[in-house]
Amino acid sequence: MPGQATRQGRTRRPVIGRVVRWLATAVGIVAGLAAVYFAAAFGLSRIAVNDDFVPADHGVPIGVSSNGVHANLHLPVRALDVDWTDLFPPSQFPSPPTWADTISFGWGSRDFYLHTPSWADLDLWVGLKATIGIGGTALHAAYWPPLQEGDAYAVTLVSPEAYRLLVDHVLATIAPGVDGRPQRIAGYSYHGNDGFYEARGTYTLFRTCNEWVREALARAGVRTGVWSPLPDALLGHLRRAGPGGA
Question: What's the rounded Cα separation, in Å, for the pair 217 and 234?
């Protein structure tokens, strides 16, 4: 009947209005939290810890690189009594360089790391799972020929003691197999010079791949930020602390 249809229409309109207002509120809350997160990331990543760090005379060269998504810690292939080819044989990688100068390490959400080499490859569901800590983690290792410092790579020199702390940070991240060796995740490589391995730890919005690199630097006494979930400030601090830097 016409009267009944009119009443039903009036009933539906307030319900739809409430749903729209609820959705608008939810979107506003999420946007606000995101703004706070990125503001904190920007601010805290630029406040230095280990501000008194001075590159070591005749020290061990270490570096940090970034592809805009993931930061990586670069260590010499061989330094002091550490030879990384023992744990990560280049033969495990599809196309290792003929002569490698450094090995880089990164850590992160297993699914996100394996399937997101660049922002263009981002899958929202994979990203959401990573931010809330669903799924395991992976260690990414890659061999590199000599690299030039630039926008995506910065270096400094550290003492033998600091270098051993960086080594310990990497070793503590490895989830070894029953044979005590790193467990290779078969079938994944970004550029052929790299591979992925099972790792310890839980990835979250607050402990990201870039924060893992920051933790290593902070532990070794190298200048870095208070909290660095994004990669850009990591390189900036290292440049300011690097050989000849201010």
Answer: 9
